[in-house]
Amino acid sequence: MGILEKISEIEKEIARTQKNKATEYHLGLLKAKLAKYRAQLLEPSKSSSSKGEGFDVMKSGDARVALIGFPSVGKSTFLSLITSTASEAASYEFTTLTCIPGVIEYKGANIQLLDLPGIIEGAAQGKGRGRQVIAVARTADVVIMMLDATKGEVQRSLLEKELGSVGIRLNKHKPNIYFKPKKGGGISFNSTVTLTQCSEKLVQLILHEYSILPEGAIFREDCSPDEFIDVIMGNRVYMPCLYVYNKIDQISMEEVDRLARKPDSVVISCGMKLNLDYLLEMLWEYLALTCIYTKKRGQRPDFTDAIILRKGASVEHVCHRIHRSLASQFKYALVWGTSTKYSPQRVGLTHTVEHEDVIQIVKK
Predict the structure, then answer these.
(1) CA 59, 63, 69: angle at the middle one, nearest 5?
(2) Hey, how many other C-beta atoms are within 10 angstroms of the C-beta on 161?
(3) Distance between start and end Cα atoms, the chain
(4) For a Cys-Cys bond, which of 30, 57, 87, 262 suits 76, CB 3.0-4.6 Å?
């Protein structure tokens, strides 16, 4: 029996097993086996020697955004509208067959947008070049999930399932579990909160399935068995996702209103160019980028060339972006903006800068 058949058998058994106190250990073991087989499926096969066409694109710009969706939902049209790259768009499925990069120029930042080929059901098992598409998506900072507004609910649940089965966790944070494997000895299990979904026995069963003896497993939050398996596997990617419902000109106003009120969702129409500016605003928020402007002594700030950093960046990060030796020669910095109590404020390397701050660095 191959790996795909084993995965199918376990999925069927999980579906027909009732969820209650008596079956929680059995379900936990099944989920552990399922995660193990899926990890084996993602490993490249050693037998295949022929090399195919390269699929990944070199990372460039200040951030990377992956555009994921089923065929013919408007991904290529969207790329052509908001970037200067022309991606072929037609009324038939699978118009895009490889990864097409474009650059969004917004608020002084260059954001790389990747138009990926359409995903079909079963992509995680390798159907329709699905594995290559998902592998590129894992390298992105934010995922834009493009959905057809006329059938968005079905598409959304199928895509979440496909991405979830290969270790991409959308709009979730990493579980707060301390876990360290060791070679021998007993299991040290502890929790700082009351656990309602996991017990010590279930944790031991899952660890036994993976032949792991941890030095210590400390739960700092109430996590489910699935989240604990994610921590054991260690190859999960947690990234923000923006659900974009396209073709809203084909549905009623009540349906548009319902979709727009969903969390992490934006409604647009590429055909009529509706709401694209709001989508870019939301994308900027999800990328959590900040613009910092520099100033030379006795001169006006340079507002034409911004330094793009992540939210929470310090003066030290600004120094490294300007020149790698600047931090070692740093004396102090003068900062104008919302991160200071008064302008200009004299600060050190650890000061956290905020969006559109102006900084002047003084060397020793």
Answers:
(1) 85
(2) 11
(3) 69
(4) 87
Q: Residue 325 is inside which H or E element, if any? A: none
Task: State how far the Cα of 146 lies from the Cα of 10, in Å rounded to an integer.
Answer: 30
| DSSP string for residues in 114-129 | EEPPPP-TTGGGTGGG
Q: Which fold has domain 289-363?
A: Ubiquitin-like (UB roll) (3.10.20)
Classify domain 63-86+98-171+237-286 at the CATH topology level. Rossmann fold (3.40.50)
CA nearest 104: which of 85, 121, 87, 88?
85
- The DSSP string of 71-90 is TTSSHHHHHHHHSS------
Look at the chain and count its residues.
364
Hey, where are the domains in the chain?
3-43+175-233, 63-86+98-171+237-286, 289-363
- pTM of structure: 0.76
- Per-residue model confidence (pLDDT) at position 323: 86
C-beta separation of 113 from 103 below 8 A? yes
How far, in Å, CA of 156 to CA of 166, rounded?
16
Mean pLDDT by 10 residues, the chain (364 residues): 75 81 78 76 52 61 84 81 68 60 84 77 56 76 87 81 80 80 64 78 75 70 79 81 88 88 88 86 88 88 86 88 86 90 88 90 87
The span from the CA of 165 to the CA of 180, in Å, is 24
